[in-house]
Fold each of these.
Amino acid sequence: MPGEESERSRLPFEPNKKRQKPAKTTAKTTPKTAPKTNSQPIVKSQESSKQLQKPQTFTKEEMAIPEVVSQRMIRRVAAFCGIPTALGIITLVASYLLITFADIQLPPIAVLLVNMGLFGLGVLGITYGVLSASWDEERPGTLLGLGELGINWGRMTEVWRETRNKNV
């Protein structure tokens, strides 16, 4: 597995060292129930193995997305989600005003489909806003973020494959 880690390009804000899972203990022996001569070496070997396998803890700052990247994601989500959602709300109001004051009969299914399409685009805009933002702190990315989308989608699918292979 370490070879796969080096093949995968790391995220710009990903911690440098992998976190190790804590070792599972199967049975605990107490000094009262176990013989004293056999329990002492076992306890010492368990303690030394626990020290070697001690999980590495990262600080909250090391695990968090950098502020520059998160602000970039928020701006993109606001644009790519906010605009279609606002258009969906405006379409509802406009169709109501057209039906009420201009006596224009709009088919309800047309209003429904237009609104579902715009609200659906708003939901997709959340994902696109996050994935199209540059995850590199020094690189702001492009206006539409098509190049960043490809890079970030590749990173995401690669991590999915790695976790699926580890769980098998």
Amino acid sequence: MTSRSPRGPYRKTVARRQQIIDAALAAYTEAGSRGVSVRDIAQRVGLTDAGVLHHFGSREELLTAVLKARETTDRAAFGNPSEDPKAALDLLAHNATAPGLVKLFLDLAAASAEPDHPAHSYFKERYPRLRGSLADSLTDLSSRQARQQELKGRRTTPDADWAARILLAAVDGLQLQWLRDPDIDMAADILTLAQTLLPALAPENGPAPAQQD
């Protein structure tokens, strides 16, 4: 049997929901560090606040739909960041131009730790999915070689400030993941990361460390 496209009032509802999501994405993209209200979104589609929420049930449901749409849009524009290093770097560069979307992601990531939050299942599924995809890509030899080739022309020099920034980012990010997966050993993960980062900071051909008696 062939699937039928939505018809009648339902089709109009689907189209209206998509219009609202597109308007919200645009609002957050343009917002900078300023917050986005339901009224900001409503004005873009010619509805009242209540009219917008009628199509989603709540502000949290609306923002969760926006977050999902953002991931779909980003993947279509840049590719899969967990499999393609260029896609990951391009996406990060794009995020730097849209702080409103970054803030939306972080706000929902924190709020969704509550099991009854609409975005809870999204984030609970997201981290294992991306970890698995990235781990598979890093394990595969040909994929790893392709990554090294792609990153070869983008090499930077690590320093102590960079290492500190990465460690702090890892600590903050691990806490978000740990809220959804308490089996994660945050201390062990950070220790492993620190042990990996420290050799990168050692000066090439520098003096050997002094030996203790």
